[in-house]
């Protein structure tokens, strides 16, 4: 079957591909837990958080699409299937059922903090390998750090 | 913790809740496999299918949000976490790696055909229990059947 | 030649297909006579009716497209060719040449009244056969009944 | 004086007309008490509730217009005058003067809960009499139940 | 309970508050009778009046919201509940049932003429008390006088 | 009954009127066969052709409205009723049922080629009679020739 | 002082310039009498004519700007000053004061009929001299003839 | 013939009517000389002035429409016919032919300065007679003074 | 150097100029402290206040631009430089560092209350000197009083 | 290889094809020198010319696309490759490096003047051969002559 | 009081925080002097510079918001109060009163040149400390350098 | 003649200038060959490729404008004249005449692959010299690599 040729050498393709696949899983799972909290949220700050969670989901979906399309443009197959997310995701767990507003703030502060930390490792890892990929990861991280601040500010 | 009171009696709430949770898993997984194919697609019909798959994803995401919000409005907690999708989804499997255009047409014809069939069971199941839920399921099914036709027509 | 497989059993497919084909002919002919009157209208209420007839035409065109696409999604071939319309349409006749505003109000009150009556038979016929089709026919009927009122109110 | 002829028989027209007139009074009064609370609201959650109440008012106004126009399309005169609302409305009472945010959440949870309950009776009542009217009532109820959840979630 | 402090002294607050509450009742009732006529209208000029009445309703709703928010900004609680409108409104009565186009023109010419007259008294009353409130009343009056002309011109 | 006076002398009015009526039938039938193919299309190029056929239909509808309104502005009654189209149209026949993509390309290449040819005769015929009508026919022909190229290029 | 050089020879520049200046005066005066009637109109058809007159004014203003800019592009100075319009205009006179709807229809039917007749002479005059100018005059005439029909149809 | 009844007493109606008619002539003539300069302008600052003159024309047209509609709403017939403008206008004269940019700045500084001065007299004259009219004149004056500054700043 | 001539006499120019310069400093400093709080805000109501503060900043910026342009249109030079704001502003002080939501509500209630009070003095001061300037100050005050209410309502 | 069949006979196709290819080269080169000047421009009128040059480029690009698509619709292959432009273009030369505003005005006055002259020959040449092509060339010429005036007016 | 935790270590947080605070002061003061010149500008190029200065102000405001929000996302409190700007800003001084167009070009060329120079130091300083911050500073610098060119080109 | 001063030292200015000029030629020629293929394309995938080529052209034009404006902002004159493109471009050659869809896919895969390779050298070359320029080149490369994938995927 035909394959997409890569503008990168094999090593750099591997490094960039791993960073992008890691980012993809983070962002897809963030979009799923973001929606899960958006639906099951309860508490006095319901409306503000309900809306903000949808902004986080939109950010995660846009970012996921960008990193996956970047991966395939480098000749690397992104994998965003449910089983892969369930198996590989490092995004923090969310209990089933209603979740109170204060809990959402605490959990998403942690989830975004950890995701940012993994993204920063990917920024470092791709600096030599592919500055174009690095630039995309910087942009995604910028958005996540902004949401991290705005969730955390509500504690 | 506070709970959302339901406009339905316990039995009807159970029937409608099951139908909506089932639809949620179908639609979330459809949005994930839709994106997976959107990214890894290859073949002469790449551009047409790449764009159509994004329409299917948009339909699935809008539908998933609607059924999940309907569930919580009935006092039932929707569960759209990755592990739940991976465990419960009946949506057909997609291999990792590149996927050829003809294969996409065949696979999504099957996926949509089966999803439509499960949706029609839910329409029947909710007729007595909750006509408001049934009306939403009818609308979602209408969209899926339209995509089913438009994918299948490309065989 | 390939065919579109139907989500309905043969009997139900037949019932839904007949209802949709009937609706298609009604709506296409309504769009044609609506334009005919839009162009040949004369009288003091020219501008109001000229504009309202275009709303009726837009409603009829949107409805025709929806019922035809629903038919093919059920594996039934819609037939909207001029000869078929000329042969099968039950929409009332319109004389050639100028048509006065009062005449337009009278004629379209009748045309819409009769079309609504046929649509309501189709709603009944499809209730068991296909609730998804029935829901579409209900929506189209709602629009036609609204126009029926707004034309009739001008008598 | 001219009258609008009805697509329904006398009995069904009566049933559908009563359901629509009842819905009209509910929705118009909801739009009035929604604005009353929107203006006189006070408390830490002022901004979120102030905005949400305007969404409820918008929903109620759109719904009121739809049910009233549906009534007249059936040849039934809708009555939405202030005296009629004041006399017939079953929507819960709102005290004059400032109203605190917690109170608004409690009162509107009750108001919406009761309105939904009356709407569901109307859905049942019109099932046989007029499926087109029923479909409109289902759509309105869907919106009210969503707002009921989103207000209640803030307790 | 907390209260909104007023930028006006007690006397001026009383004068401005009374003018705004009076305007609120006029505008809310105008929006209700406007819709009542919009729905029950009949006659050859149906479409033109049906549309113009909706412009009047939109004007009345926007104005009502502005005067009520201005009242509370002055520390005065606006009261726009159905019972208050029914009790206090000086807007002319509208019979139930169909209302012919000529009748609508006559009735609304009178309703708007009288409303303008009361608004002009309020403009005078607030000149000393609060020029900011006066400016809002002038703007509302300007809109009402324009509609008064455009309805009356159809006699 | 009143009639529209023409800016043209009788002979020129006749020439321009015939050209416009001919164009009207061509364009209305093109819009009907365009939709017929849009619905019943099947084959690998389904999506591209499905979308392009809708562009042709939009072009045909806009053109039909323009030529019909031009006719009546010249005091000539356009006739766009189904029976007239069925009787007078020279647009090529389309079989009922599914139609394959390659067939659509071939048939619409022929239909557009022949329509363009008739339009060019009308351009010539109206040059002396009415340059304003000629200019409209030139604009319509330009659009048809562009679609003719873009369909044909897919052979 | 600098001058704009013309793409036309002296004779053709003169012919085209005269045609454009004539059209300019017609269109500017049409925009003035259109507004005059828009403001002073009275009668049952007030709203329809009030709106249509504004469409005529918009058409006349757009056309006036186009012909004036075309004149200067040909090195001919357009003159659209009030005194010039008052002195040169051949547009029919309008009495001061209220003007009834039927009168407006009659007067504007005549005004547009005569304007169209002068425009057609200009189309003929410029055919040889400047086809670019002729094309603009054709477009303006097309718009005027359409309005002529739509006003006249209301008699 | 029917007349528009005025919300003002005879004396006040006369004062407001005169002020509005005066403003109407100023604004209509400003729109004509603005266009005249827009077309015949020449010089290095052509583009800036060409665009700014169109802003002045837009301001003048909007203002003219507002003051004329206000006049008729007061039962006073506005007169904006070419002959009336030519006879009554006090707006400064503009020579025919090309006009250099520096000249435009000088002439429009004077025209706007004088118009503002007349508008301020009208503001004073209407203060007692009709505060609603005065408010409109204030708004128009504000716009003219802004344009006066921005033209003058280019000297 | 050239200067902008004023439509006001020297005394009135001085009064209006002082009022506008005072308003300018109030509004510019409000825009700066509004952003300062928008950025450094912390607490459970973070999101609502973060968004509302941006509405206040937008209001202040729009108002500042309007009063400054009005000043120069009167021939008075507005001064909005940082040093001038720092020296002349009477807007309340904001501490550096994080600022809690409750503190923001308290501080901005005071800041807006005091600004409104100064604006009302300017409205009074300019009544005789320049009604056009007064009208602008009334409009700005209206906006500030609305924000004052909406901030204060959150206490 | 497949070819596009032409609606024109061989001779007319040749004439129209030559005119369109000539126009294509003119327009493409105009778009390139327009951008060259847009970037390298210097002088006091920088901003006005910088913006106007982009309008010229937009006009040239739109025109180039239209004439090239018209050529292929006639079965003639347009050639817009860089080497062809460099070889065939008659558009005046532009020196490398900064170019002063006065120089730009002079050069583009000449470039547009010459282009218009060539376009007018093409209009004449295609009159018999293809009125549809002629109409497109007239429209392009109209735009170029307008820009020619507006550049030249700045001398 | 709660604090925002930083994704950066203390040293890097200090470096990035200093760079962002420096950029904030530059951008806020640029927005203030940009408006000051926008208002007090005089000279033949008034309109072009008046508009361009508003583009610079918009750029500066957007940039200021972005760097301040980035600072707080890093746990550093931005300080944009008037006194801080007055004390710390290195942006060049602007005299009070009218400022001629040539002067504005000279002064803003210098202001932007110096600001760009400081921004480039910040880009260098943050390269190691925080690539996400550096990327934002690069984007802001890109915009400032573009404005620097476009102002300077007008000398 | 005046010159634009550079924020870069001479050496860095030279490096960045060369990279930008190289990118400019690549992008301009890509926009020309993209259009050439857009027009002369033939084959079953005509419509998909016709549309995608226009996306490539839009990307190339936007990129060309950005790199050219960046060059002049650095004091380097971009050269985008036809002769320079024809002389310096390294973009692959395209034969005249019809070009089949498969050929387009092959040729543009090669053209984009080679362009990306040259862009990556420029990214490397400018890293030290000017990070602002580098960031722009990264962004352009990202777009080209995405198009490279999407063309190549159709093989």
UniProtKB/TrEMBL annotation, chains A, B, C, D, E, F, G, H, I, J, K, L:
Could you tell me which residue ranges the Ferritin/DPS domain spans?
18-154
* Ranges in a coiled coil: none
Pfam families, alphabetized? Ferritin
What PROSITE patterns has UniProt attached to this entry?
DPS_1
Example of a GO MF term: oxidoreductase activity, acting on metal ions
Q: Which Gene3D superfamilies match?
A: 1.20.1260.10
Q: Which InterPro entries match?
A: DPS_DNA-bd, DPS_DNA-bd_CS, Ferritin-like, Ferritin-like_SF, Ferritin_DPS_dom
Spell out the family assignment given in the record's similarity comment: Belongs to the Dps family.
List, alphabetically, the PANTHER family matched.
DNA PROTECTION DURING STARVATION PROTEIN 1 (PTHR42932:SF2), GENERAL STRESS PROTEIN 20U (PTHR42932)
Q: What is this protein called?
A: DNA starvation/stationary phase protection protein
Which organism does this sequence originate in?
A: Sphaerisporangium melleum
